[in-house]
Each structure stands twice: as C-alpha cells, then as structure tokens.
Design a protein that fits this description.
alpha/beta; 7-stranded mixed β-sheet; 32 helices; 17 strands; about 10% strand; elongated
C-alpha cells in the first residue's frame, strides 16, 4: 500500500469514526453545556455582567469543520511522518526504511540516586503499543524523539492492535508548527490550542476568561474522552516563549487528572518538562548501543562494503562516542554518503556535532529557542561551555560532577560571561535543554554528554587564552593539549613551548599526548620547530614513542614539508657512529630559528633520504657512510 492509498483510507475512516461516534450528539451536549454555563453565571454575576457574557459567549461546533480539521491533521501528520530529511543528506529517507527500534529507560536518569545505579530498559515501540497511562518520552537533542513519534504514528494506521481498539483516532500537535504570534496575542493555553485544532470555536468575554479558564478545558476533556482520542504532542521543548511553556506545562497537569477514555503521548528534551504528573509514565531514550549503530549504518548506507568501511572508521575514531545519538550518526552517514569517507580530522567532526546541537538542527527546522538571559546567544553559550568544561576537567579531573561542583564553578566564572550569580540551576537547565551537551544523569549528578566533546570544549578554552596556558595546568590535560595544538594558529610554536618545559611533563603525559596528536592530525606550519621537537627526542630517548609518532605524522600530515627548509637552510656538519648533525648554513639562521643544530640517527636518515632528497643535499659519500 502506498502513501496516497493510506491517506485516502484514513480520511474516509475519520468521517466514519466521527459520524459513527455521534458527532451530532456531542454538539447537543455542547449546547447543553452552554446552557449550564449561562445558568451558573446568571447566579454569580451582576445583571450587566451577565448580559455582556450572554452577548459575547459563543460555542460554534460544526460537524463539517470538526471532520475537516481531523482530516487535515491526519493528512499533514502522515506526510510529516513519512520521512526524515536534513540539509546535508543527499535525499530524504523513508522512516520505514531507516527506522530501528530504540530502547527506553523505565525512569529518567535524573532520578538516579547514584551514578552507578542501573536503570531497567524496554523496547520503545513495544512499550508504545500499550497506553494504560499517559506517556512522556524524554530525550537529549538528537536522541530520536520525533523519529520515534513518526514511526509510532505510521504504525497506528497500518496495524490493527490493542491500541487501535483502545482509541478511535489520534490528534497530532507539533509544537514547532503552531502560530505563536496568534497564541500569545490571544493568551491561549493548551486547551485553547486543542479546541482550535479540533475545530470548536469558543468565544468568552475577556474579563471572564481571566477569571475562569475552565470552560475550554471542560469542552476539550469531554470531547476527547467521548471520542477516545489519543493526543500526540511532539516537541514540548520547542515552545519558544518561556511563560507560555510554563503555562502549558501546568495545563498538562490538569489534563493528566481529567482523561478517562483518552490518553496523551508527549515528547520533550530532558529537564525541559519538569513536573511529575499523575496517571503518567515517564521514560528516557537510551543512547544507541553498538548493535543499533551498525543497524542504522546499514540502513543509511546500502552498499554493504561501504557500510562496513564507514563503521570501522568511526569505531576507531575519537568521536565514536558521538554516534550514540541518532542525529549525529545520521549526519556522519550523510557525509560518508556524499564523500565516501569521513572527515580526516576529528576536530572537524567535533565542531560539526557541537554546531548541530547548538544551532544548525534548530535552524533547519525553523525553531527559535529563546534564552532567559539577555545576550546569551550561541557563541556565548559555546564560550561558557568551554570555560565550564575546562574548569571541571582541570579542577575535578573526572567525567561526572555534582551539583556542588557546578555551584563552585559557576560562581567563579559567571560574571565573566555576564550571567546572574544565583541562577546556576536555571542556566544549566537551559544549556541542557538548548544544547544537550550537559546532562543531568542522577539526583544532583551531571556529566557532559560525550567525553570527546568535553575534551574539545576544554581545548577550545585553552586555545583562546592569551599566550600559552601554564604547563602546570597542561600536564593534567594531555588529550586536551593535543587538540589545543590542532586548534592553534601555530601548532609548531606550541610544540616548541612544550619542549622548552619538557621536564614538567611525565612519561604518561607524553604517551597520551602523542597518541592523541596522531589521531587529531595537526596542520603544521611551514617552519622547522615541529621537526626539531621530534628529532631532538628521537635522538635522546631510548623508547620509540617519539619515533613512531614522528613517522606516523610524516605519512598522515604535512609535517614533512619542513624538510624543504632543512634542505635549503641547513647543512651537514659531522657524522658520528650512529648520528648525523645538521646546522643552519649562515649564522643569521641561528638567530632566526634559535636552533644551533639538528641531530638525526643514521637509521632514520636512511629511511627519509629518498623521499625528502636529503642525500643529495647532505652530499654524503655512499662508500663512507653506508649502513
């Protein structure tokens, strides 16, 4: 069955269900309700107020309008549910073809009392087959909330299971699609939004509306209960106005207490919807496991060989931890689909994912997230997150941190970022909702969503401080220092700075630092300082840690271009039994580089001689210096 056939059948079924359930009876009920309301206000208001109320209070239900609104809602919801699409993708992807089932935590992680507490899981789609209670699905940005709703909506119409027997029709409200100018202008609440979506027009005098807002609530509740409507709300976090969001959150509390034959499904970013509701189950989408990552990869990249190549490359990369989010993984798949490769430098992926989470994904969907704090725009959020990440990485040196850790850090850095001193909780909640980079994973326990992104943000902070950071700090941050060198405008000078303070760093620092440098692939400057750094320590150290890093970087980066300088501005001076010495040719090059000589082992020389034409420049006699 194709999409158009499904759409036609659903629209026909809508009319059948609405008429079969007695829409005309509901209209009679509304008229009765109107009479009751008039009677109640006749007893409580003055004659003048009652006359004004009678003149201006109208309920206008229409069988045609209600049926038409449901048909339109179903038609647009089916089209929305059919596919996923984003700018970098070559084409839209069918939900049916790329969807894999997700896991749900049976309780949001923020309720854990301890970071090591295990939370049971359940299959998402299996869980959504049963609606004994209302459901809230929490998830970080890019966790797959909307995609889950899309698959659920399509399955509702395609299957004939328990849920189809329990409810007659679904009504979809996508918060990002609403007209907020009209909603704010008319001071609407959730029940007014539902009335407009259903097609029931209610007009109430303004003074009475402020005095009693139960009229629209009662009409909505009676309608959805009588018709057994399943209400689906996607993207609570996408409501752009803070006060409206809080009002609608309270409306959900009222709704949860009044639904009998109806239920609702709501999705929201974690810590955006904070109320605990009666008659409602709350879940949180789990990160993808390796099996699920493989499944998504194979669904996105149809060529099996290419899919395996992609998976192996990201599995070996430092940014593999970002692939636990469907959004990030899908974007990486789309990049591979275009280029048949992934970005060679991890920092390009870190930057892509952070931009995606902070801004680009919302821009593509036309979503505006208003901040409670003036001028706390995207770039300032990045700077604050970088500062926060640095402080927590250096001062606490752990992957998770307590609320007290956050308080101490926030109080130290908030003034620098023009944030109010006693608003730590709300600032962190906004960062979690808007970016998903900081997450609450237990009671008063927080962590960065991805270790690789925490390291990148820390490195961003290190790379933006005036001058070079103190080596007494860097010695605790080997991975972050390697990334900072890649971000630096002068990686070679940064290496030279570390070299001048070599004794401060222990062997563990150098082991971690050099391994990360290989993975991050710096873009070296056109000077000799980077090569001088490696040649010095290859010559002086007995282990091959510096040697293997040097040889790897020669193959994977532009480090080798510095040999052009050595060929042009240095000359062979002397030969020891196992080493060769180069010195700058004229004396002015000594002042230029501050380097008196470069020592290279004979074995290393003979490995590099042909590739970098060292032999002809050094003019060695093969008979005398042959190994």
């Amino acid at each position: 069955m194709n999409f158009m056939d499904l759409e036609t059948i659903m629209i026909e079924k809508t009319c059948e269900v609405l008429l079969g359930k007695g829409l005309s009876k509901l209209i009679n009920y509304i008229e009765t309700t109107k009479a009751k309301v008039l009677g109640r206000y006749r007893e409580t208001e003055t004659d003048e107020e009652f006359e004004d109320f009678q003149r201006n209070f109208h309920i206008s239900p229409s069988e045609d309008i209600i049926a038409s609104n449901f048909q339109r809602n179903i038609k647009s919801s089916l089209k929305w549910s059919e596919e996923v699409n984003f700018g970098i993708s070559l084409s839209a992807k069918s939900i049916r073809k790329i969807f894999i089932d997700l896991d749900l935590y049976l309780s949001p992680l923020k309720y854990r009392s301890d970071i090591d507490e295990k939370v049971d899981k359940v299959d998402a789609m299996r869980n959504l087959k049963s609606f004994n209670k209302n459901k809230i699905i929490y998830g970080s940005p890019g966790a797959g909330k909307s995609t889950l709703v899309k698959k659920f909506y399509i399955d509702y119409w395609k299957e004939d299971g328990e849920i189809n027997k329990k409810f007659t029709l679904p009504l979809m409200i996508r918060f990002r699609e609403l007209d907020y100018n009209d909603i704010l202008k008319n001071d609407y609440n959730l029940f007014d939004i539902l009335l407009n979506s259903i097609g029931i027009k209610v007009k109430v005098p303004e003074y009475l509306r402020k005095k009693d807002n139960d009229i629209s609530k009662n009409i909505v509740v009676d309608f959805v209960n009588q018709f057994k409507i399943l209400l689906i709300f996607d993207g609570f976090d996408e409501i752009p106005d803070y006060n409206l969001k809080k009002k609608i959150e309270l409306n959900f509390q009222e709704l949860s207490l009044n639904l009998e034959n109806s239920r609702f499904l709501l999705t929201s970013r974690t810590n955006d919807f904070v109320l605990v509701l009666n008659n409602t189950e709350a879940y949180e989408i789990c990160p993808l496991n390796e099996k699920q990552i493989k499944k998504i990869t194979n669904k996105w990249i149809k060529n099996k060989e290419q899919a395996n190549d992609f998976y192996e490359k990201i599995k070996k990369s430092r940014f593999f931890d970002t692939a636990i989010r469907p959004l990030a993984l899908s974007h990486l798949c789309a990049i591979y689909e275009r280029r048949k490769s992934i970005p060679s430098r991890p920092i390009d992926v870190y930057d892509l994912i952070i931009s995606l989470l902070l801004e680009n994904w919302d821009i593509e969907r036309g979503i505006i997230r208003a901040s409670l704090y003036s001028d706390f725009y995207i770039e300032k959020k990045k700077k604050f997150l970088s500062h926060l990440s640095f402080w927590l990485s250096y001062e606490r040196q752990k992957n998770y941190f307590t609320e007290q850790d956050l308080y101490e850090c926030y109080n130290l850095i908030c003034m620098e970022h023009n944030l109010p001193k006693y608003q730590m909780k709300s600032v962190v909640a906004e960062l979690e909702s808007h970016t998903g980079l900081v997450m609450q994973t237990g009671v008063k326990i927080f962590e960065f969503s991805h270790k690789s992104l925490q390291e990148f943000l820390t490195a961003k902070y290190l790379s933006t401080t005036p001058g070079y950071p103190d080596c007494s700090i860097l010695k605790y941050l080997p991975s972050e220092t390697a990334i900072a060198i890649v971000l630096s405008n002068s990686p070679n000078s940064y290496l030279s700075y570390l070299n001048s303070n070599f004794s401060i760093f222990n062997s563990r620092f150098w082991a971690v630092f050099l391994e990360r440098l290989i993975e991050e692939k710096p873009d070296f400057n056109y000077d000799i300082y980077a090569i001088a750094f490696f040649l010095e320590h290859i010559y002086e150290n007995t282990d091959d840690m510096f040697y293997s890093t040097f040889m790897n970087l020669l193959e994977t980066t532009n480090l080798g271009v510095a040999f052009e300088i050595i060929n042009q501005e240095f000359e062979y001076k002397r030969l020891y039994e196992s080493a060769i010495t180069y010195v700058p040719k004229p004396n002015e090059y000594i002042a230029k580089y501050g380097i008196m000589e470069l020592n290279m082992s004979r074995s290393l020389f003979y490995k590099l001689v042909d590739k970098y034409k060292l032999k002809e420049k050094a003019m060695f006699d093969d008979r005398e210096y042959k190994e």
